[in-house]
Structure formats: structure tokens, C-alpha cells
Amino acid sequence: CLSYIRWILSYLPKTFYKGMLIESIDTYFMSSALFNQRLLVRSSECEDGKLLHSIIRKDDGTDVFRAESRWKKAELLSRQACIE
Fold first, then answer.
1. pLDDT digit string (tens) for 26-78?
2. Per-residue pLDDT, 81
3. φ, ψ at 7 (rounded to 5°)
4. Which of 4, 30, 78, 79 is the most buried (most CB within 10 A)?
5. How many domains are contained in the chain?
6. Residues 6 or more apart in contact with residue 42 via CB below 8 angstroms
7. What is the domain-level CATH number for residue 48?
8. Would residue 81 count as lying in a domain?
């Protein structure tokens, strides 16, 4: 599942996530992908910083993985740490 998350995030344009932090991600594992299978990675932006992601097996159109991520500006999620 972590590889799928890494794939969907690596296909996002840098202009999208510059100055942004991921607030949450919901994942839906649907099917395994095997070595040498051709996959399509898609992401679409919805309202309020929500993105829908999918990984689809190219030869038969089967969904392998889906995710929904929410993003916010970094300054809204960041906190200062006070270490004494």
C-alpha cells in the first residue's frame, strides 16, 4: 500500500504541493499489481484542496488502488515546537 501512495504522490506536479502539506489521506486497496503490468496513475483536483487519485491496470481497466487526499497551506498546519 505504501508503494501505491508513493506513486500517486510522485505524479503530482511540484507547482501543486509547493507550500502545501498533506492533512489526511484515505486509501482503498482494490487489487494487486504484478511486476511488468502497465499501470495508469491519475489524480484530479476537487474543491477545498481535495484530490482524488487512482491507479488503474492499463490492459483491462481494473482499479488497483484509489485514494482521497486533503491538502492545506503549510502555515495552517505547521506548529512551532518548544523544546526545553
1. 999 999 888 899 999 999 998 877 999 999 999 999 999 999 999 988 887 76
2. 66
3. -65, -50
4. 4
5. 1
6. 53, 54, 55, 56
7. 3.10.129.10
8. no
CA-CA distance, 20 to 13, in Å (whole number)?
A: 12
Distance, in Å, from the CA atom of 35 to the CA atom of 26, rounded to the nearest integer, reads 25
Dihedral angle, C-alpha 31, 33, 34, 36, nearest 10 °: 150
The closest of 72, 31, 70, 38 to 53, measured between CA atoms, is 70
In one-letter notation, the amino acid at residue 50 is K
Mean pLDDT on 4-17: 87
Distances (CA, A) of 34 to 25, 42, 50, 66: 24, 18, 29, 17
- Please indicate, yes or no, if residue 83 is contained in any of the structural domains: no
**Distance, CA of 48 to CA of 23 (rounded, Å):** 12
Beta strands in 1-84 (DSSP E): 20-29, 39-45, 50-57, 63-73
